[in-house]
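Structural prep section.
Before we set up the soaks we want a predicted structure of the protein with coenzyme A in place, mainly to decide which crystallisation condition to try first. Input record follows.
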Amino acid sequence: MVDPAAPLSWPLPSADIVGEFGDGTLRLRAPVNSDLPGLVTSSRHADSQRFTHLEKSYSRGDAEAFLRTMARSPVAMLWIVDDPDSPGQFGGTLEVRLVSREARCVELGYTTAPHLRGRGLMTAVARMVTEFLFDYRVHRVQIKANPENAASCAVAVNAGFAHEGTARDAEMLRGRFNDLDTFARLSTDE
Ligand SMILES: CC(C)(COP(=O)(O)OP(=O)(O)OC[C@H]1O[C@@H](n2cnc3c(N)ncnc32)[C@H](O)[C@@H]1OP(=O)(O)O)[C@@H](O)C(=O)NCCC(=O)NCCS
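Run finished without errors. Recording the tokens verbatim:
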């Protein structure tokens, strides 16, 4: 039996995480160069611009730099969400960020490619990755979202995360303070 006080082993395994999505396959996989155009399109989309720090002029070079940074990051891991309709194509991103090894706590960040939004894809991804994280001894998975970002908040709630509260003026985005809602699931939740 592993000592519950032992810190989380990090990084986590970076292998593909695979599940079901409707009649098809849900796959989280490593980034490849052919994901770059999809990353650019997704990052330039109006919703991404409104709720993230991504630049309007987000370029292929920015996408390359992002993938390099993530590959080297000691505190974050990135999976690409495979397009369930076109296997091998870009369908979104899923980031797992280490919050505390001692508290075995991580945070999720996500984007769905614009052409796949509103079909339950990120909800399915958040559910699947959370089960994977619990299997690897993560105790707390949290999501922080601007309460005005209805889609992001809906993903958290629909994936079984409890709304814990609202931190006021917790983020500065494009010259404006935003509140941030926190949602979480614990490995011990029912
Ligand atoms: C947030 C995001 C990842 C959601 O991805 P998705 O695959 O479309 O998510 P899902 O289809 O699983 O769920 C979206 C939910 O939001 C709801 N939704 C979408 N737009 C909405 C809106 N404008 N108002 C209210 N609800 C909305 C959908 O109806 C759905 O909920 P439901 O299943 O209860 O009907 C996607 O919109 C996105 O990439 N946004 C831009 C980047 C971003 O904001 N990332 C999060 C930063 S915290």
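Observations: The chain has one domain: 17-186.
Flagged for discussion at group meeting.
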